[in-house]
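Go through the following before class.
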Amino acid sequence: MAELKMLVFHPMESGLRKDAVTKELIPRHFIDILTIEQNGLPVLEAHLSRSVSRNPFLHFKIPNVKKGDKFKIDWHDNFGENGTIETEVP
């Protein structure tokens, strides 16, 4: 078992806040899908929403992890933006 902890830098706007200057609603902008692969095989798919805070800190426990395993983490948001990171278990 391994603990995978990550901080995702993303504005995660709910669409309910107003701009301080213009007083207009700030459009919704949030991560909707986050996936984790272990050695090329999917181990987790999380569907997030606008209720998750800005720059979310995420923590998952992944079973059957060995030294040298490779993880790939992808996220996609409702604006079509995405991010990817890969890491290896030391």
